[in-house]
Amino acid sequence: MNLPVQTQGLSKRYGGLTAVRDLDLTVRAGEVYGFLGPNGAGKTTTLRMLLGLVRPSAGTVRLLGRTPGAGRLTGVGALIEGPAFYPYLSGRDNLRVLARYAGVGADRIATVLDLVDLTSRAGDRYTGYSLGMKQRLGVAAALLKDPRLLILDEPTNGLDPAGIADMRALIRRLGAAGCTVLVSSHLLGEVEQICDRIGVIVGGRMVAEGSVAELCGSAGLRVLADPLDQAVTRARELVGADRVRVVNGGLDLSVEPDRAAWLNAELVGAGLAVRELRHRDRDLEQVFFELVERGTADVA
Ligand SMILES: Nc1ncnc2c1ncn2[C@@H]1O[C@H](COP(=O)(O)OP(=O)(O)OP(=O)(O)O)[C@@H](O)[C@H]1O
């Protein structure tokens, strides 16, 4: 299978600090992939290694089937640090400068301005743009060479809700147009709605990867039983201590929902009064926080 991004055992150490450890990241052709993690998790370091801007301490990177390095990033567009634009030139003129430098025809400028929804403001000076418009111009610059793979590092950082919504819509449009997009974020809500798959990185390690449905799929059971302390003890014996959490006077169990009848019989058999036992849905936010919590504990 042709994989636009594939890393194996990718690691980066800065002195005594391991910023990225043993990372296997796979982005499939045509998907919008959300690279999610809290601040300092190692997202930027990973993206910089993908682009050949930082040398890995260990592991391999394949980008569009090639090993990245100087001059070998054909087909890849990236917005990884706030791009440098001339403040007193218009958005369009800034793109003209970049297009000339990149050997891209002037006709492409109108196309990318349209894609990022800046056509009506393209003649305005860059300095008068909102942060969201500046970011969208950065994406336009990354799109000049009509890349097959677009890498965006926290493109919504610092944007207001309207700017975030615009950026989300833009990424969705690019994905729909067949561009493979790898976008990092520390805010789950930003990627949840637009990504086909999500990888969660905590402490430099990938702790989960999959579609939103897959990540949330491991829902569990919610049990209300009396007396609570005995219910906790018995539930821990039955399914394992790490799968039982006490939340709001009840038990949240990380077990397959089809074990409900068995669990009910066991708890009742142990003399407990089971008041409620139901399927517990989890939203991605909860999953993300659990992953971050668990991942941080593992790293500590
Ligand atoms: N050049 C460097 N020298 C030393 N440490 C570094 C360097 N670059 C990054 N780090 C450290 O590596 C870790 C990962 O940083 P990185 O910027 O990759 O995280 P991030 O997930 O992108 O975070 P954020 O969301 O805050 O941008 C952090 O602890 C950071 O301080």
TrEMBL record:
Domain ABC transporter per the UniProt entry, residue ranges: 5-228
Keyword ATP-binding carried by entry: yes
Keywords: ATP-binding, Nucleotide-binding, Transport
Record-linked InterPro entries: AAA+_ATPase (IPR003593), ABC_transporter-like_ATP-bd (IPR003439), ABC_transporter-like_CS (IPR017871), P-loop_NTPase (IPR027417)
Molecular function as annotated in GO: ATP binding
Top-level division of the source organism's lineage: Bacteria
CDD domains to which the protein is assigned, alphabetical: ABC_BcrA_bacitracin_resist
Gene3D superfamilies reported for this sequence: P-loop containing nucleotide triphosphate hydrolases
Family: Belongs to the ABC transporter superfamily.
Cross-referenced PANTHER family: ABC TRANSPORTER, ATP-BINDING PROTEIN
Protein name: ABC-2 type transport system ATP-binding protein
